[in-house]
């Protein structure tokens, strides 16, 4: 089955993806009259295919965008695949491949280490110097994790910097890691061995100003390199290495001293902000990983504050967390067929967690008033107190209760079966 997308336009600008069908995976979303970014949350139990739906979207959009005239906005300008999982479903890549950017934390060995998280975060921060909104976004993320500011600091590298001959020889041996034309290799060596880079790298207390960081990003852009690749080369060939420090009053804390949740939250925002472009598709798999419920609840509002509406992008998140669902533009649930996802059409925005657990996640919550309300609807229907015009309300209540009732609730099961019989027979 071939994949396809339908796009929604305002004056020719793509706002969001309305339909997707690729292999067994499909969904459709309602049109929206709102401008700006759209935030769609996909939920489902383990094995329901929600993460693989994101992979399907990544595969389809990144392949289809290659070779397209992006001025026509037929496909997302780029697809970002974001994950904090030890083993995620996305295609691994250390550099951009066409319209696809892997922003997970896996390395080429398919391992995730604390060092890989710190390195990915530093690389992302270096990439957040192009626009003021990016710096503002990092300031918001810094405040949420409990600090007033952050600094980029040089750290020592053991051994002598690589010689020109050694650098060029190793680059040619390591084409799988850094495949560069000879003239670009020469320019990279000249930049990394320059007096400015070496002087700053030798000052281990140096706090980098934005202008110094921009020298990296400007050079990388001028030779067609990703900033992350330039930083990897600087560290690998012992020219320079950098780390993050977070500040609160007179105290500074190295990123290695942060809790995992603090660094994961800041890192996710930095990775997205550094790479997103107008008309992007951002796929985030289980963003709640490692986060306290309070920060799970804060994640989507933070992202909305960080990403300007002018980006006109579509952010799709797969999650198990009801704390994230409450701030979504729309919600997709597993349908009747594996791989099919359907829209949840009941109110969810700003709903309390108890309501979301029952209505969206179909979870049993002791003493949940919503369960009692649905049971009352069914009992009133059985008693003849509901009209035929209220049949939809009754059917919805039956469906919700079926998801939470079991052998330990025989009275509820009896009421459900009786109501279903009356609905099916038209009694």
Short summary:
With 427 residues, the protein is an alpha/beta fold. Helix content is 42%, strand content 17%.
General form = elongated
Helix-strand pattern, N to C?
Answer: EEEEHEEHHEHHHHHEEHEHEHEEHHHH
Please write the CATH class name of the domain at 1-112 and 276-362: Alpha Beta
Instruction: Figure out the total of helices.
Output: 15
CATH architecture of the domain at 1-112 and 276-362: 3-Layer(aba) Sandwich
- The stretches of 5 or more residues where confidence is low (pLDDT under 50) are 1-7, 9-15, 65-73
Structure classification: alpha/beta
Strands, total number = 13
Record the strand order, biggest sheet.
6-5-10-11-4-12-13
Features of the shown structure:
427 residues, alpha/beta, Rossmann fold, 7-stranded mixed beta sheet, disordered N terminus, elongated, 42% helix, 3-stranded antiparallel beta sheet
What does this protein structure show overall?
This protein is an alpha/beta fold and 427 residues long. It is built from 15 helices and 13 strands. Among the domains are: 1-112 and 276-362, 3-Layer(aba) Sandwich (Rossmann fold), CATH 3.40.50; 369-425, no CATH class. Helix content is 42%, strand content 17%. The strands form three sheets. Strands 6-5-10-11-4-12-13 form a seven-stranded mixed β-sheet, with helices on both faces. A hairpin with a 2-residue loop joins strand 8 (241-248) and strand 9. Helix 4 packs across helix 5. The two termini are 42 Å apart.
């Amino acid at each position: 089955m071939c994949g396809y997308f339908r796009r929604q336009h305002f004056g020719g600008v793509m706002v969001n993806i309305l339909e997707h069908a690729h292999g067994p995976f499909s969904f459709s979303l309602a049109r929206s009259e709102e401008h700006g970014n759209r935030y769609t949350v996909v939920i489902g139990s383990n094995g329901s295919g929600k993460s693989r739906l994101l992979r399907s979207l990544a595969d389809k959009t990144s392949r289809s965008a290659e070779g397209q005239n992006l001025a026509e906005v037929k496909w997302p300008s780029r697809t970002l695949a974001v994950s904090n999982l030890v083993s995620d479903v996305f295609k691994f890549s250390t550099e951009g491949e066409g319209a696809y950017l892997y922003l997970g934390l896996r390395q080429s060995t398919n391992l995730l280490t604390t060092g890989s998280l710190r390195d990915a975060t530093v690389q992302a921060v270096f990439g957040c110097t192009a626009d003021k909104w990016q710096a503002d976004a990092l300031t918001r993320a810094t405040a949420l994790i409990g600090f007033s500011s952050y600094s980029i600091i040089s750290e020592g590298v053991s051994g002598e910097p690589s010689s020109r001959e050694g650098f060029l020889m190793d680059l040619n041996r390591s084409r799988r890691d850094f495949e560069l034309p000879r003239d670009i290799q020469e320019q990279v060596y000249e930049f990394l061995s320059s007096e400015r880079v070496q002087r700053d790298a030798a000052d281990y207390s140096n706090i980098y100003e934005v202008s110094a960081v921009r020298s990296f990003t400007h050079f990388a852009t001028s030779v067609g390199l990703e900033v992350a690749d330039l930083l990897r080369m600087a560290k690998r060939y012992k020219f320079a290495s950098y780390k993050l420090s977070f500040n609160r009053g007179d105290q500074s804390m190295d990123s290695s001293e942060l809790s995992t949740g603090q660094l994961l939250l800041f890192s996710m925002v930095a990775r997205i902000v550094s790479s997103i472009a107008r008309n992007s598709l951002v796929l985030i798999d289980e963003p709640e990983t490692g986060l306290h419920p309070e920060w799970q609840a804060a994640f989507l509002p933070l992202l909305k504050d960080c990403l300007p509406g002018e980006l006109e992008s579509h952010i799709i998140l797969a999650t198990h967390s009801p704390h994230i669902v409450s701030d979504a533009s729309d919600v997709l649930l597993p349908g009747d067929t594996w791989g099919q996802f359907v829209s949840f059409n009941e109110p969810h925005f700003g709903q309390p967690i108890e309501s979301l657990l029952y209505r969206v996640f179909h979870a049993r919550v002791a003493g949940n008033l919503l369960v009692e309300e649905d049971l009352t609807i069914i009992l009133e229907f059985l008693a003849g107190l509901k009209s035929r015009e209220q049949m939809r309300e009754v059917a919805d209540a039956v469906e919700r209760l079926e998801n939470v009732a079991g052998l330990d609730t025989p009275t509820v099961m009896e009421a459900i079966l009786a109501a279903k019989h009356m609905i099916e027979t038209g009694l």
